[in-house]
Amino acid sequence: MFRIKKLDIFITRQFGLLFFGTFFICQFVLMMQFLWRYVDELIGKGLSMEVMAQFFWYMGLMLVPQALPLAILLSSLITFGNLGESSELTAIKAAGISLMQSFRSLIVISILVSLASFYFQNNIGPTANLKMAQLLISMKQKSPELEIPEGRFYDGIPNCNLFVQKKDLETGKLYGIMIYRMTGSYEDQAIILADSGMLQSTAEKKHLVLSLWSGEWFENMQSSELANSASVPYRRETFIEKKIVLDYDGDFNMTDAGLFSGNAKGKSLTQISQSIDSMNHTFDSIGRNYYHQMQRSCLDIQPVSKNDSLVALKRVKSEKLNIDSVFAKLSERKKQEVVNRALNKVQSQVSELDFQSMFTSDADRTIRQHYIEAINKFTLALSCLIFFFIGAPLGAIIRKGGLGIPVIISVLVFIIFYVLDSMGYRMSRDGVWTVWFGKALAPAVLTPVAVFVTYKANNDSVVFNFDAYRNFFMRLLGLRLKRHVAGKEVIINNPDYLADKVILERITQEVTEYSKVHNLHKPANVIKVFFKYQPDHEIERIVEELESTIDDLANTRDKVILTELNKYPVVSEKAHTRPFERKWMNIVAAIILPVGIFLYLRMWMFRLRLLHDLRVIKQTNEAICHRIDHIV
Fold first, then answer.
1. Nearest in space to 164 (alpha carbons), one of 173, 236, 244, 45
2. How confident is the model at residue 368 (pLDDT cuts 50, 70, 90)?
3. 168-188 b/e with 16+ CB inside 10 Å = b?
4. pLDDT confidence of 115, banded at 50, 70, 90?
5. Going by DSSP bridges, is the β-strand pair 153-154/160-167 parallel, antiparallel, or unpaired?
6. Half-sphere exposure of 379 (CA within 13 A, CB side)
């Protein structure tokens, strides 16, 4: 039976505070990202505070389902990162409570958040999306405010380009005015020049009154007789004062919501299902109609019933007509007429098919978008649970709280999710992938990641031990650390110099003999390396004996010996003999040619490096033996 314990309350309290904070942060970031997409179309429209408040309200509601998964990921990662950093997670495990038991309260919360996200998308989200789309179209269609700049053309007034050299902000007068009116075609355009003027809006904000003083009007005159002529008459008018009325709608008019009836994002699951059934029935009927029309057109008959086309087709097939022989009996003029008529008919049919294919493609795209939105309601809700099983185990593994590493990891995970989801959406929308595959791509990739990190965290794995990864890549690339032997302040046992000298002299003889026998300066035999490998543990034995001697000599107080000890290289014991320990792995590597070539060249590099290391060992041994003779 599930019982609420103090630990559950403690972890829930820690998570809850972070969840609400990160949710509003994620919501703010997503809203700013959404706002920047439309900022150029909204600035300078003179929108009222009421309209802007509706815009931000519906935008916030629309982005809630996207902010919830990211908030859960970040808050769960920080929560368990803080517990691990303060050693509270260690204390929990020491008390016999497993990591999954500490997760249980947050698992329940994540499930509730997932259900709330689904409910929100199915009931509140469609209305918010519909209202948001309606507001955006209405904002785009609103005429801009008259903020006419100085020194450049302003095209905010319909069918008019206005240039003002200077304007007086106190009186509202404009100076050095040049106007290009483009009310029609080239034959109907006009150029107006004026020394000064003033622009005012009418009371109903439907028109603008432009008062001009001391100017000239140049206008092309329309003439039907000269429509095809290069010379177009014009008139020129000089005026002292003139008023021009321009069309300008300065009010904010809400677009009819009926225009968005086909928007899949503005529908619940029930409405989407009904819309898909209705569209399938309608588009199937239209497709059948297109088919019958094309069938009748290809047969070049006018059937009186829907079965006449099939009857005519059977009649043509039953009659054994040789088209080539009939065509050959025609005169040259008739042949040309028949070919031209057939060509015109084929071109007409191709154009008709292209037009019909555009309609059917749009219909298929609309149906796919409805399926995408239906599946998206489930995948976004499921992502809340997936992100929890990524964030909480990662926090337990990394054991770093705060807003540093958790934010970086959260952003990387969310970017991966966003890229996969966006790619799947576009591919599904365009019909390249099936809808279920495109929308399931992101959850299918992240679910194994969540299972993997949860398993590793529950087993106290060091999957994020960067030192282990560093050592692995250093071994892979042939890199190594430099030896560092420092003098000891307290020495318990002094080194046995004479015994160490004997061992070093013997090692010198052994490395000299090994270098000669194995010809390390030459590449190894390919067959012996990959297929007929003979065990070679001589270097392992020599290195083990050398390291033991170095450890003993490290107890010395002689600075010369300590300096010489640091000259010993860190020797790779096996890399020069074969790529892998197991014989079958070496055979597979040889068969896969690019891999085998890389491993063979890598092994040759280690042979050359071993040859250099053995020479350094020989020289260092001689120097230390000489120093021991001087000391003893």
1. 173
2. confident
3. eeeeebbebbebebeeeeeee
4. very high
5. antiparallel
6. 26
Q: Are strands 207-220 and 190-201 parallel, antiparallel or unpaired?
A: antiparallel
- Return the minimum-mean-pLDDT range out of 57-66, 400-409, 534-543: 400-409
Output the six-digit token pair for 176. 């050095």
The number of beta carbons lying within 10 Å of the beta carbon of residue 33 is 10
pLDDT band at 181 (very low <50, low <70, confident <90, very high): confident
Q: Average the pLDDT over 394-408 and give the result.
A: 78
Residue labelled with tokens 């070919």: 339
Q: Judging by DSSP bridges, how do beta strands 153-154 and 190-201 pair with one another?
A: unpaired
pLDDT digits (tens, 9 = 90+) for 494-520: 888 889 889 999 999 998 888 888 888
Cβ partners under 8 Å of residue 289, min gap 6: none
Average pLDDT over the chain, rounded to an integer: 80
Question: In degrees rounded to 5, what are phi and psi of residue 495?
Answer: -70, 150
What integer pLDDT is reported at residue 226 of this predicted model? 45
Cα separation, 88 vs 97, whole angstroms: 12
| Order of all β-strands in the sheet with 207-220 | 153-154, 160-167, 173-181, 190-201, 207-220, 234-247
Specify whether the CB–CB gap between 44 and 359 falls below 8 A: no
What's the CA gap between 627 and 632, in Å, rounded? 9
Name residues whose C-beta falls within 8 Å of residue 184's C-beta, 6 or more positions apart in sequence. 222
pLDDT at position 90: 80
Q: What is the model's pLDDT at position 366?
A: 83
SS3 per residue for 54-80: HHHHHHHHHHHHHHHHHHHHHHHHHHH
User: How far is 406 from 254, CA to CA, in rounded Å?
Assistant: 44
Looking at residue 111, its pLDDT comes to 93
Integer Rg of the chain from CA: 41
E strands of 168-298, at which residues? Answer: 173-181, 190-201, 207-220, 234-247
How many other C-beta atoms are found inside a 10 Å radius of the C-beta of residue 10? 15
Closest by CA position to 243, among listed 272, 206, 215, 284: 215
Q: In whole angstroms, give the CA distance from residue 497 to residue 630.
A: 11
What DSSP string describes 103-166?
HHHHHHHHHHHHHHHHHIIIIIHHHHHHHHHHHHHHHHHSPPP--PPSSSEE--STTEEEEEEE
**Helix or strand or coil: residue 628?**
helix
Q: Please check whether residue 166 is in contact with residue 177, taking contact to mean a CB–CB distance below 8 angstroms.
A: no
Average pLDDT of span 50-58: 85
- Does residue 578 contact residue 586 with C-beta atoms inside 8 Å? yes
